[in-house]
């Protein structure tokens, strides 16, 4: 269902997924006077803890989805690994922003790469792989080192195998335990960056500063805002994200992760049609955070200014790192965010800390 009438404060936003992104969206919704209703299969989820209502049910449960749709004014989603059929089901009942098209394109690495390449936007060289035989042919074309990734349901380095000249390809294919994958050439990058843009129901858009991301063990570790890149590269990165959002007819927020190669090319790695970990710094360093912007977009309100008022370095608190909360609270320029997760596991995102610095004070090596 599409509707161009704004949903006034007092309305209820339905959020598919109960993780920290849903939690921070629900908090932003509350500060603008909206309620959040979380739909998640998980009990005691981080998002449900701060929301007005929660439906704990499977995404396949159509009766639960119908009840949920009747209790909310619009629906958004906080992660991509949701089957698209419930999203299509909900779309017939209530506005879903972003809709199934953006979700389906982003959740399948093959669709995602075709989408960008069709727009003339570069990615790492890649081949579709559906068998060990395909993998051997693809390696002849792409070479090594390369990375074999499941087409679907991968995140934070899960569902990936690095392939070197001596890798046993039959074992690598069997180890991935999938029927569809993509082989990607390994990119020697100078840095990783991401561009985050928002698009409203009227097609208006807003972009935050492009940031630099450093990953450790495939998981985002540190985001620096702004990225130390030239204004030319920044404009190129934003134009890629803008083109993608337009072509998906997206309403909400879109993050596009890119590699900046040593010879100055931008190659898209992947995108997420939702608030993104590399945009958490916007809560404390911008006039409008990515979470408030999603609320504005989903409710058909004017977008807010994404202007950065401070430089920022965001560090994820992964596993044990969150136990340092007391020391972090004592740092004068640090803003601590914890996600209310009761079980600490290695590799699990428990919270983040954003350290703020005066505007334009971070060393911008290479910035022109
Ligand atoms: P992904 O799950 O695709 O986001 O990958 C997680 C991280 O692994 C990326 O942010 C990179 O640091 C690294 N990575 C993924 N694909 C490649 C690639 N083709 N070449 C080099 N590094 C990669």
Structure explained in plain terms:
The protein is α+β, with helices and mostly antiparallel strands and 368 residues long. It has 3 domains: 12-96, Rossmann fold (3-Layer(aba) Sandwich), CATH 3.40.50.20; 125-185, 2-Layer Sandwich (Dna Ligase, domain 1); 189-357, 2-Layer Sandwich (D-amino Acid Aminotransferase, Chain A, domain 1), CATH 3.30.470. The chain is 27% helix and 28% strand. It has helices at 20-31, 62-71, 84-91, 100-106, 109-118, 132-142, 169-176, 231-247, 282-285, 290-298, 325-329; strands at residues 12-16, 35-40, 53-56, 74-77, 126-129, 146-150, 160-163, 181-185, 189-199, 205-207, 211-216, 219-225, 252-261, 266-272, 311-318, 334-338, 349-357. The N and C termini lie far apart (46 Å). Adenosine monophosphate binds at residues 124, 147, 154, 157, 184, 186-187, 192, 215, 218, 269-270.
Kindly state the number of beta strands: 17
Counting helices, strands and paired strands, the structural category is alpha+beta
Into which percent range does the helicity of residues fall? Answer: 25-40%
> How would you sum up the global shape?
globular
Order of helices and strands: EHEEHEHHHEHEEHEEEEEHEEHHEHEE
Number of helices: 11
* Average pLDDT taken over every residue: 95
Radius of gyration: 20 Å
Bound molecules: adenosine monophosphate
CATH architecture level-2 label of the largest domain: 2-Layer Sandwich
User: CATH superfamily name of the largest domain?
Assistant: ATP-grasp fold, B domain
